[in-house]
Amino acid sequence: MFKQFVPAPVPADDLAAALAPFGQSRMLPREAYVEAAVFEWEKQYIFSGWHCVGHASDLDGVGAQKAVGSGKNSILLVRGEDGQVRAFANVCRHRGHEMLACGSTAKRRGVVCPYHSWSYKLTGELRNAPGFDDADGFQFEPSAFGLTELRLVNWHGYLFVDPSGQDIDFEQHVAGLEDIVGPYRPEELTVVDRHSYVLDTNWKVIVENYQECYHCQAIHPELSRISPPTSGENIDLPGDWMGGWMSIIDGAQTMSLSGASGGVAIKGLSEQELRTVMYLVGFPNLLVSLHPDYVMTHVMTPLGVDRTHVECAWAFPKEALEAPDFDPSYAVDFWDLTNRQDWAACESVQRGLSSPHSRPGPLAPDEDGVYQFVTRVAKAYQGTR
Hints:
It is built from 12 helices and 17 strands. With about 375 residues, it is of the alpha+beta class. It has 2 domains: about 10-50 and about 190-380, Alpha-Beta Complex (Naphthalene 1,2-dioxygenase Alpha Subunit, Chain A, domain 1); about 50-165, Rieske [2Fe-2S] iron-sulphur domain (Rieske Iron-sulfur Protein, 3-layer Sandwich). Strands 1-10-9-4-3-2-5 form a 7-stranded antiparallel beta sheet, with no helix packed on it. Strand 2 and strand 3 form a beta hairpin. Helix 6 (about 205-210) crosses helix 11 (about 330-355) and helix 6 packs antiparallel against helix 12 (about 370-380). The longest helix is centred in the C-terminal third of the chain and has 25 residues, at about 330-355. The radius of gyration is 22 Å and the shape is globular. The termini are close together.
């Protein structure tokens, strides 16, 4: 894990119960969802390691800049003149002002602090500190005051940052995934629509909901008609990701209200991939849904212990976009409806967890995917990964 690790402030007995063998285990302690101290711990020990900060296409062209996260986890993404995206701590080296406000974007040939106009090259080096050129007697070496660069990896178009610089090698983080994600070539797809949601729930509740279809028959009638809730199985991965696949009924082409596709199949997919949807969790905050004809992602940004921003994006093959009558709403409308059904359930769960009478419940046989996630979090809380 990280140097000077401190276990999460959650009851040890409840953690042990969450880590019991599947069929005997319980959910995470209530404190994991409602206590501000646990959320602060997660920011320090989970979200300071590898996590997704968006897609490379978010930064369109040289000089594109975007601030993600806030406070201690605020990150500035910048596309340089060499076309590469870099990540920096969103902190001016003068007095600590944010270079950009959280969630905001800019596009310019340099990075400029709005407080005292210190400016930096797109590579992070200090370009100009007003007033210091003529300051006789001041000891000032510009090369010592560049922006603090963070570890960043562009993997199939998804941008991952390790602010701590202490997490495992990225290859370990995504171990076992190349053969699963690679055939869909998400880096070559085009994002054509995005929806942003702010949920009154803990980020883990969203992932747990995503990791099971035990609830689908009750709240997703549209989804259940196209993809049987009891279909598919979860997969075992050696890295930090988890997930599983579900099948599409005969006669349907993809996940849409009618089962019909309004696009084209992604080239090169196998027969299995053309008949299934793969649902993956890139721990901790990326959800990737691989469809035969599009890829949908959810990127979560925790705003508080009971508040989470989610950006959902839909990406399609270029061949689909070339059709004059292409309309992505067949996928977007289906999942926006499904998302909102999920969000209502997640917010209700959060309200229930706020009750002092809430206790960790058991996992059903169909919730082995939830067990994957719960044990991953519990191990992080202990420092055993």
